[in-house]
Amino acid sequence: MGSDGGLKRGFWSMGQLDRELAESLLESARRHAAGPRRSAILPATEIAALFFETSTRTRVSFEVAATRLGATTIHFDSKASSLSKGESLQDTVETIASFGVDGLVVRSSAAGAPQLIADWTGLKVVNAGDGAHQHPSQALLDLYTLSERLGSLEALSGLRVGIVGDIAHSRVARSLMEGLNLFGAEVTLIGPATLMPPIGFGPAARMSSDFDECLGDLDVVYLLRLQQERIGQGLIPSFGEYVARYSLTRERYRRLKPEVVIMHPGPVYPGMEVDSAVIADESSLVRSQTRNGVFVRMAILEAVFGEGGRE
Amino acid sequence: MGSDGGLKRGFWSMGQLDRELAESLLESARRHAAGPRRSAILPATEIAALFFETSTRTRVSFEVAATRLGATTIHFDSKASSLSKGESLQDTVETIASFGVDGLVVRSSAAGAPQLIADWTGLKVVNAGDGAHQHPSQALLDLYTLSERLGSLEALSGLRVGIVGDIAHSRVARSLMEGLNLFGAEVTLIGPATLMPPIGFGPAARMSSDFDECLGDLDVVYLLRLQQERIGQGLIPSFGEYVARYSLTRERYRRLKPEVVIMHPGPVYPGMEVDSAVIADESSLVRSQTRNGVFVRMAILEAVFGEGGRE
Amino acid sequence: MGSDGGLKRGFWSMGQLDRELAESLLESARRHAAGPRRSAILPATEIAALFFETSTRTRVSFEVAATRLGATTIHFDSKASSLSKGESLQDTVETIASFGVDGLVVRSSAAGAPQLIADWTGLKVVNAGDGAHQHPSQALLDLYTLSERLGSLEALSGLRVGIVGDIAHSRVARSLMEGLNLFGAEVTLIGPATLMPPIGFGPAARMSSDFDECLGDLDVVYLLRLQQERIGQGLIPSFGEYVARYSLTRERYRRLKPEVVIMHPGPVYPGMEVDSAVIADESSLVRSQTRNGVFVRMAILEAVFGEGGRE
Questions:
Q1: CB distance from A84 to chain C under 8 Å?
Q2: ipTM of the prediction
């Protein structure tokens, strides 16, 4: 309890969470990680997965989570759908809603689409990533993974986290900043000035365009994915230039604190944002992030679709 | 009972139904609408969905219906299949049949494919749309939705239904005409002469190329989807011309009877066959059509694959 | 028991089988063919299907087999995946493994990928075809189908089997040769010299470039699929030339022994490797091969993922 309304209408933004609700979700994820793989917590629930952008890890992670809770998932392949015939998003979504499902997991390139869809349909909607806006299940699994490595959520307080790369276009960065802020971590946003966020992007954070200068201070380095199209848009001069200044090379890795942890939302393209040897090192939490994603999404689905408690 | 053979071999055409059998299916659909969402009516049934044409609403509607009856569906994605390597339809279908499934739900661009496939394989086949031939589950859900709005099936007798658009190429129109004919409705086919059906298309119906002239007489306006390729084929001069004469604009809508109902098989492209404000009005049954599709398809699957009764 | 280790780590090559283990798998397949369609042999097992090459029959066959054993399958569509964004195979595979599944069914164009993936992930991996290397479930279903027709596995001893076509690039040929060798059949590889395998391809076998000369001696004609790209590669001059010398035409069919059996792994393109009347004849086992594929794959999945016995 504690927060205004909980997640009974859906979960589209980290802004819906206060610290108490976030802790409750993470505690629920821990119970799912420790518990039996399968349960009948959502036995008659039907959830449609609407992915308007391609995705492997997030889509499968949500589907596995739903299945393990006993729910039924309905897969909607946007490529094969009538959207390619020119049908509007609203019509597609209302059609799926008409089938009488209990809710939707939505990924869309349109910022705000999940909440809009919840309004249109009256259905519960879980955001699996909307444009450059929010990716709240990713932020929660990152918090989970960090607290697992550090031993407690309390250890996040005062932790120095550097988020590196294309901040301006990153729903991951935005959601994670809000999540870290709840637990008192100190965030530094690192990247070229052209990829820094506009004012009002999220909670206050330090900014730096000099990764090298920050290295010695960071407890956590969170690397974002760089999309090729940023070059064509003139936001970065070349990949070579980007790698030279912002990639976590082996050389930079050696200058980090010994107990530093490395995170990345995946998929990782070794040699771009990070050296392949670094990402394979034991300080990297990439595999843990993926594994924990299922537990965190079970907690989210239970909070949104379950009968009892996690409100 | 009542009709010759029932649907135990499959359901590929409205021509298989007499009034008694149609009523029985619609009554079964009403029981599914009123009953619990899930049952174990088809507990060990395996149904393969073979969609050789893309579809969202029909495919998902059948899959949801099958799942709610306790059946297992096997999804066959024609894009990823060996058909793209040159395999013949017959070989693909016989392969699926060899897996030992109980039956198939088939959508194909080839008129007559479902019955042919039933002959080839000996399996039960449900037609989810075959070329310009038949779309019987759509016709049944339209009858269901109309009778739900009107209060009874008897109210269909003498009802004046205008089907508007590309009649000649429409499996929806053909199946619906046969269905309406069973219950004594009076059908007027409305569209440009180039899109009127050939002789022998279906039950006798009035025809008109003047939508405006018909407006005041209609109790139901059923709008068909217009496919872009009709222009390239020289069957209509332009979309603008079509909209000017056959689109249900707000202006035409005002000249309809106050109690008129508007139907469309979806997907709707607002501004083409119908104005977006009209399709969103309460006289529009579009959402009801989609919702009822699941109940009607549950009734069809039960009649085809079930042990007892609905023959 | 009997063989070193059984299949508890996975099944990627016919080389893992001795005669005793092969017999045990085929006996298990017979029990599945005779038994009830559904069981709860693998009630809590989660198996991800990773098909990096398109496939209908093999993918669906494995999914049906898994479902009938009570397992859950997770479908990974390589087209929609992050692989298209440039993610490496290893990263994709490790991501799927991170979800906590029990194992993978993998098809890949890379020879050796299944065993590599088993090493990377520590998960059980079943090979559904890897490049030109191995297709062991196909070989087992072929052995099953042959012994079913002949009445026993013992009848394979001394049986004269001609494998016809593109031997060099065929994982089917390689696995089948190893399987036939276990049971004492005599294999002749038949095809143009440019499509004959290199030394060390598999067990010793006779080779011939003269199909006509071999016809009278063969008890089994196993036709391989010919891929169009072989022409572009200069390995065969034209389809016409190939058909003239290596297609099982009606004329050649008449010169075979009366009790000969015809096999083909599918999909069959009539008129290329074989005449359509021949493949439809009762001497053709093509449909039986597909049907038996499900039973054999149930046996394989039970051996790999089951608690008890088939080691």
A1: no
A2: 0.88
CATH of the domain spanning A136-290: 3.40.50.1370
Residues sharing a CB contact under 8 Å with residue C83, sequence separation 6 or more, in sequence order: A56, C52, C89, C92
Among residues A19, A27, A15, the alpha carbon closest in space to that of A309 is found at: A27
Domain ranges of chain B: 10-134+291-305, 136-286
Q: Is C154 left (phi over 0), alpha (psi -120 to 50) or beta?
A: alpha
Residue B134 near residue B172, CB atoms below 8 Å: no
The arrangement of secondary structure in B10-134+291-305, i.e. its CATH architecture, is 3-Layer(aba) Sandwich (3.40)
Q: Per CATH, which fold does C136-289 belong to?
A: Rossmann fold (3.40.50)
How many angstroms separate the CA atoms of A198 and A167, rounded? 10
Strands B220-223 and B160-164, by their bridges, are: parallel
Q: Touching check for C276 and chain A: CB below 8 Å?
A: no
- What's at A44, amino acid-wise? A
Q: With an 8 Å Cβ cutoff, are B290 and A87 in contact?
A: no
Identify the residue with better confidence: B86 or A60: A60
Query: Residues C25-84: pLDDT tens digits?
Result: 999 999 999 999 999 999 989 999 999 887 878 999 999 999 999 999 998 766 545 454
Q: How close does chain A come to C263, measured CA to CA in Å?
A: 35
Q: Please answer whether residues B171 and B134 qualify as being in contact, where contact means their C-beta atoms are separated by less than 8 angstroms.
A: yes
CATH superfamily of A10-135+292-305: Aspartate/ornithine carbamoyltransferase (3.40.50.1370)
In this complex, is the C-beta atom of A284 within 8 Å of any C-beta atom belonging to chain C? Answer: no
pLDDT digits (tens, 9 = 90+) for B170-208: 999 999 999 999 999 999 999 999 999 987 787 888 999
Cite the DSSP H helix spans in chain C: 19-34, 57-68, 89-98, 113-121, 136-150, 171-182, 211-214, 229-232, 239-246, 250-254, 276-280, 286-305
Chain A nearest-CA distance from C32, in A, is 26
Residues of C within 8 A of A268 (CB-CB) are 87, 91
* B94/C268 Cβ within 8 A: no
A74 chain-B contacts, CB cut-off 8 A: 60, 63-64
Residue C294 CA: distances (Å) to CA of A108, C67, C108, C289, C297: 38, 11, 20, 9, 5
Shortest CB distance from B54 goes to which of A72, A84, A100? A84
Closest to B116 measured CA to CA, from B77, B141, B88, B80: B88
B87–C contact, CB cutoff 8 A: yes
User: Best mutation site among C51, C83, C87, C98 for testing chain A: the one with the most A CBs within 10 Å?
Assistant: C98
Q: Facing residues of A252 across strands?
A: none
Yes or no, beta carbons of B270 and A96 under 8 Å apart: no
The DSSP element (H or E) to which C188 belongs, if any, is strand C186-190
Q: In chain A, which residues have their Cβ closer than 8 Å to the Cβ of C86? A: 267, 269
Collect all residues with Cβ–Cβ distance below 8 Å to A73 and sequence separation of at least 6. A46, A47, A48, A49, A62, A63, A66, A67
- Cis (ω within 30 of 0) for the bond into B267? yes
* Homologous superfamily of B136-286: Aspartate/ornithine carbamoyltransferase (3.40.50.1370)
Residue A96 contacts B where some CB pair is shorter than 8 Å: yes
Question: Considering only CA atoms, which of A109, A248, A107, A240 is closest in space to residue A165?
Answer: A248
Longest dimension (CA), chain A: 56
Amino acid present at A109: S
Structure tokens, B264: 């469309």
What local confidence, expressed as pLDDT, does residue C78 receive? 63
CA-based nearest distance C259→chain A, Å: 47
Q: How far apart (Å, rounded) are the C-alpha atoms in residues A102 and B73?
A: 20
What's the mean pLDDT in B282-300? 96
The answer to whether residue A81 neighbours chain B at the CB level (below 8 Å) is yes
| Residue of chain C whose Cα is closest to the Cα of A276 | C91
Find, in chain B, the residue whose alpha carbon is nearest to that of A73.
B64
